[in-house]
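ugh ok fine here u go
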Amino acid sequence: MDQQTQQSQQSQPQQQPTIIIQNINTNTNVNAVPTGSRKNKWVTLLLWFFFGVVGGHKFYEGKVGMGILYIFTAGLFGIGLLVDFFAILFKPTHYYC
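structure:
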């Protein structure tokens, strides 16, 4: 009879555990106001075109250290100018630095 009781208990389906998921997001955005000064993408691109080798666009963005580095290395030997061109193109029209 003991064997018969075990078989009947094994044949009964097991009850699945109840899982309760509570996804509650209480985070608030504390960085709603952008910091820095507002820059225009097209002004930056024009400065890159005319004064890129001497870092004109870097000075406009407020990155004085990079601007000085561009002066002494001719735009990071041209590689920095190429990278900056694509970086400027993919920025929004108005961005903050």
